[in-house]
TrEMBL record:
<comment type="function">
    <text>Catalyzes the reversible conversion of 3-phosphohydroxypyruvate to phosphoserine and of 3-hydroxy-2-oxo-4-phosphonooxybutanoate to phosphohydroxythreonine.</text>
</comment>
<dbReference type="GO" id="GO:0030170">
    <property type="term" value="F:pyridoxal phosphate binding"/>
</dbReference>
<protein>
    <recommendedName>
        <fullName>Phosphoserine aminotransferase</fullName>
        <ecNumber>2.6.1.52</ecNumber>
    </recommendedName>
</protein>
<comment type="similarity">
    <text>Belongs to the class-V pyridoxal-phosphate-dependent aminotransferase family. SerC subfamily.</text>
</comment>
<feature type="binding site">
    <location>
        <begin position="76"/>
        <end position="77"/>
    </location>
    <ligand>
        <name>pyridoxal 5'-phosphate</name>
    </ligand>
</feature>
<keyword id="KW-0663">Pyridoxal phosphate</keyword>
<dbReference type="GO" id="GO:0004648">
    <property type="term" value="F:O-phospho-L-serine:2-oxoglutarate aminotransferase activity"/>
</dbReference>
<feature type="modified residue" description="N6-(pyridoxal phosphate)lysine">
    <location>
        <position position="197"/>
    </location>
</feature>
<comment type="pathway">
    <text>Amino-acid biosynthesis; L-serine biosynthesis; L-serine from 3-phospho-D-glycerate: step 2/3.</text>
</comment>
<dbReference type="InterPro" id="IPR015422">
    <property type="entry name" value="PyrdxlP-dep_Trfase_small"/>
</dbReference>
<dbReference type="GO" id="GO:0008615">
    <property type="term" value="P:pyridoxine biosynthetic process"/>
</dbReference>
<dbReference type="InterPro" id="IPR022278">
    <property type="entry name" value="Pser_aminoTfrase"/>
</dbReference>
<feature type="domain" description="Aminotransferase class V">
    <location>
        <begin position="4"/>
        <end position="350"/>
    </location>
</feature>
<dbReference type="GO" id="GO:0006564">
    <property type="term" value="P:L-serine biosynthetic process"/>
</dbReference>
<comment type="pathway">
    <text>Cofactor biosynthesis; pyridoxine 5'-phosphate biosynthesis; pyridoxine 5'-phosphate from D-erythrose 4-phosphate: step 3/5.</text>
</comment>
<dbReference type="InterPro" id="IPR000192">
    <property type="entry name" value="Aminotrans_V_dom"/>
</dbReference>
<feature type="binding site">
    <location>
        <position position="102"/>
    </location>
    <ligand>
        <name>pyridoxal 5'-phosphate</name>
    </ligand>
</feature>
Length: 362
């Protein structure tokens, strides 16, 4: 078997133990005589799988009982439409923080349905920081405040979360740092995340929504876009993404066995710390454009002083079994995505490679 350390931003590395477990159960899930892929989503076996996955997620994140967990499809991108269609209510506009690529797409889509007030933007310094919340121009009449807790391409992460103001719910795209650090769900109105980074395979999108927000949808909303419809049907209005839900359930079980989100957070800080330290100690050979306070623990972006060496850096890394280090095509450079499932050894291997490459080319 050939095994590499996979630094892809998503779909991304999954815990090796989870893949082995899925392999062992591939043909016969718990004596059912069939694969999870072949099961009716309404049968008792799959019902057990989805209920257990929800229970485990609730305990991992301490999700209060007045929040619903929805297992949806359409990716985080579909939430860019579902959020305004469901939550605008009788308000005219929504507040949004613009910290980069994914914020901009959320803003673009929300503008189709609502007025969008950009309360703050870090575009002035090429999205390398999060504007201080005291400077945000918030609208007391906004339907909600939307932000992206971790910009997967820019490598910029909120270090603290905004305070909810009055009755205005906080809505967060947590796609790339979901389950990576402890959060207080009760401070949010709605959290969403595509699965393919910290949760499981692509094809599944998780939404955690406070119950009182389920009835603000526009009357013409397509049935499949309505949180109320999916909540009332326990995510079974239509056929859900059964296999990704099953794998997500295995990942949640794995996370619990690792010590839960608190243990993951400590490990994630250690991993990110090693990489940023290597960048800082390279005497300028490598550099990270993001301001120190907002450097992502999930997506570490960096460049070489001599950008003409970047192709050789990526090729050499690939030859050493360190794959998917090329930055997003929109920004170039390098990006190491080090989600929960990336082992410490993978990060150590990358750091050793970086030191050796700098020694050879510095
Ligand atoms: N938001 C963030 C922060 C993301 O990283 C991504 C995907 N990389 C998306 C939204 C879009 O997700 P999807 O491809 O699941 O629609």
């Amino acid at each position: 078997m050939s095994k590499v350390y996979n630094f892809s931003a998503g779909p991304a590395v999954l815990p090796h133990e989870v893949l082995l477990e899925a392999q062992g159960e591939m043909l016969d899930w718990h004596g059912s005589g069939m694969s999870v892929m072949e099961m009716s989503h309404r049968g008792k076996e799959f019902m057990e799988i989805i209920h257990q996955a929800e229970q485990d997620l609730r305990s991992l994140m301490n999700i209060p009982s007045n929040y619903r967990v929805l297992f949806l499809q359409g990716g985080a991108s579909m939430q860019f439409s579902m959020v305004p269609l469901n939550l605008l209510g009788d308000r005219a506009s929504v507040d949004v923080v613009n910290t980069g690529h994914w914020s901009k797409l959320a803003i673009k889509e929300a503008r189709r349905y609502a007025g969008v007030n950009v309360v703050a933007s870090s575009e002035d310094r090429n999205f390398t920081y999060v504007p201080a919340s005291e400077t945000w121009q918030r609208d007391p009449q906004a339907a909600y405040l939307h932000f992206t807790s971790n910009e997967t391409i820019g490598g910029v992460q909120f270090s603290t979360f905004p305070e909810p103001e009055g009755e205005i719910p906080l809505v967060c795209d947590m796609s790339s740092d979901f389950l990576s650090r402890e959060i207080d769900v009760s401070r949010f109105g709605l959290i969403y995340a595509g699965a393919q980074k910290n949760i499981g395979p692509s094809g599944l999108t998780l939404v955690i929504v406070r119950e009182d927000l389920l009835d603000r949808a526009q009357p013409q909303i397509p049935t499949m876009m309505s949180y109320r419809v999916h909540a009332d049907a326990d995510s079974m209005y239509n056929t859900p993404a059964t296999y990704p839900i099953y794998i997500a359930g295995l990942v949640f079980k794995w996370l619990k066995a690792q010590g839960g989100v608190r243990a993951m957070e400590a490990r994630n800080e250690e991993k990110a710390g090693l990489l940023y330290h290597a960048i800082e100690q390279s005497g300028g050979f490598y550099h990270c454009p993001v301001e120190v306070a907002f450097r992502s623990r999930m997506n570490v972006v960096f460049r070489l002083r001599d950008e003409s060496l970047e192709e050789a850096f990526v090729a050499g890394a690939r030859a050493a079994g360190l794959v998917q280090l090329k930055g997003h095509r929109a920004v170039g450079g390098m990006r190491a995505s080090i989600y929960n499932a990336m082992p410490l050894e993978g990060v150590k291997a990358l750091v050793s490679y970086m030191l050796e490459f700098a020694r050879q080319h510095g």
